[in-house]
Amino acid sequence: MDSRIKNISDEAQKLGCTVETGAVLKDHTTFRIGGKCDLLIKLNGEESFLRLIPLAEKLNAPYYIFGKGSNLIVDSDGISGVVFVVGKDFSDISRSGNVLTCQSGASLSKICLYALENSLSGLEFAYGIPGTLGGAVFMNAGAYGGEMKDVIASVKAMDRQGNVKTYLPHELELSYRCSRFKNSGEIILSADIRLENGDKTEIKAKMDKLTEQRRSKQPLEFPSAGSTFKRPEGSYASLLIEQCGLKGVHVGDAEVSTKHSGFIINKGNADFSQLMELINIVKNTVKEKTGYVLECEPLIISDKKEFSPKKEEDL
After folding, report:
1. 227 is catalytic
2. 297 a catalytic residue
């Protein structure tokens, strides 16, 4: 093992974190695609963030930060370095009046159910989005007319050297599928979510209705990363893909869903190369036939130079 990786592993074990060498990353992504990493560490508290990530920076060790892996495409050949996972070991939720304080590893579904139990409304749109709070803030997740920017009261984050700061909404630079954190490199630790008092029966009815809409319109029965492409200005990715006759087009087990053309799905044993080939077919066909340039919504993680740089975050 690389001495840098070993140093990080030793420190993580001192902090009581779960540590795994050679973890298979398809087990940590909703696409169910991804090879091995050198080391996987489940962060278990704020101290583990403050000590391990600055250590990785100091050692110049490659690393990534995963949440539920719901907005990631990971190379089947594996990636070098450390994968820090922010999940159930860092997922506490507390309440003060109509404000929920949520650690970044808490799943959106868990937070929505907590809000429901406390008769708090405003987060129903997020029920069923398969990600963590940190990832939702990072990309300003949204659905059915709602976005995280509608409910965020503040965000606590740290930079890569371990300096912690709390940001108010006007400082977060929230826009369509974007926030300050996409550019700053800061890591989201927690957020305050401000909701409204509501009727529990009405809140549940709305959550149930949106769940049924998702089930009826989206290919939830297959692994995917949700919407594969961002919405281009002036149109919709799914509409353009369908107009170009790409529904059902596949490369191996990677397929443009026949149920919702905005989703590329894994029909069984799709790998990274098949998925990227299909993504490029879709992008090139749409550009040739319509002039629109589609941008991939999930982050692409690979050691190969043609893909994304290191230290991308998807909590």
Report:
1. yes
2. yes
